[in-house]
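Entry:
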Amino acid sequence: MTVSYTLKVANCRFGGFSKLLFRWKGSIYKLLYKEFIVFMVLYAVLSLVYRRLLTEEQKRLYTKVAQYCNRSTDLIPMSFVLGFYVTLIINRWWAQYTSIPLPDQLMCVISSNVHGKDERGRILRRTLIRYANLSAVLILRSISTRVLKRFPTMDHVVEAGFMTQDEHKKFESLHSDFNKYWIPCVWFTNLAAQARRDGRIRDDVALRLLMDELNLYRAKCSMLFHYDWISIPLVYTQVVTIAVYSFFAFCLIGRQFLEPLEPGQEGDLDMYVPLSTLLQFFFYAGWLKVAEQIINPFGEDDDDFETNKLIDRNLQVSLLSVDDMYQNLPPAVKDKYWNESTAQPPYTMATASETLKPSFLGSTFDMCMCEDAEQNQMVEASPSVPCIQTPRLSRFFAAASPAVSIKNFSRGSRARSHVWHPQTDGGFPSPYPKRSEDPELVARIKEEEMEDEASQASEPTTPGSHLGHTRLPEASETQNKELLLIQVKAPSSESIGADGPEAWEP
């Protein structure tokens, strides 16, 4: 039976988990106490042999062997091997639980789409859901020891009411070398098709919905079968087991109390009970036992799945929904909040304090916005608006803007780069409104522009010679201080088709 302690940890309080340490059923003590006793007995035997039976020469030899074993324990990656293995086991354990077929969705579809209050309608609905439960029983009987002990033969399944005698004969007459858990699902599809022909299922959409839910149900049965068939590779389980056992075999020898090899040398404190080693055994060996317990959750351990309870629940709930609850509805009346625009259910005195808490409206609901009116004005995004580099970003650029290299962007014209100088009296806005112009910098920029124009005029104007051939200006120390703001106007279709070079205007 699964050990549930959810209510005990519903609220975080002082020593919350400590109360769980005194439980026995499903505890690590119950899993590990036998191995723990064996380890302590072996450790005690080796300690007595070393202290009472060995000679001085033998003790010195044993000391060297123990030191070697103690160093060897550091070479075994216990945390990595065990951690990865247990994580894999936990994920597989939960995936197997989510693969257990539950008839809840299927029974709702049957109850709403297979019509008829007469005896034939009841038989159809009950038979369909019984076939689904029979398929789950057959697959759980194949993988769970608890279910197999409950239904050791097919006669027990018939006696339990999951299958009739005629269905049993038909089931046994179908010979197959493989598991036949899928046969009730095929019976389900044929019976649903017959119900559609008889008008019990009124349209093909309802039949398709019924088939889709059955396929999901059957897929979970198949997934359980494959989880049971395909285990975690045996070599990985062997590696983890050997790693743990060899680690503590070295600990039995290497963690013993040792007398110093040289006379007068200070030795370690003689701890008759190795607390740190025992705790290490408790953690690592307990980790391995956890993986051993949940690697197959369909057994009879304390924390294994309660498959027999699931079978009882599924059959009872599904038959109730498709038979007693079919069109058995309470009267539809006006609800309590019919005349209220905002429904507010009442609270008890124990929970009334929750009404004082404001509702969560989003993480940015209480964010403080900038009070500057200019920052909150709406601006239309347009490609014609020049891009301005912020002063803070300009310090990361060591040379002039790479936009200068797009001078000869046009296919049919030679375009010039336009350098915009920071000005505060109009025109292009300056990113440094409080900084005065540097005359030396302005003169240097104009000089380089004149040199570029002179070099371009001296080049031969052969067709296509200007494409992709532009000399990048060298960055001087003065240019490293200021970021050149450059605007390049994209060429129009007319300029691309023109034969002669045309200068671009900003």
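The chain is about 50% helix and 0% strand.
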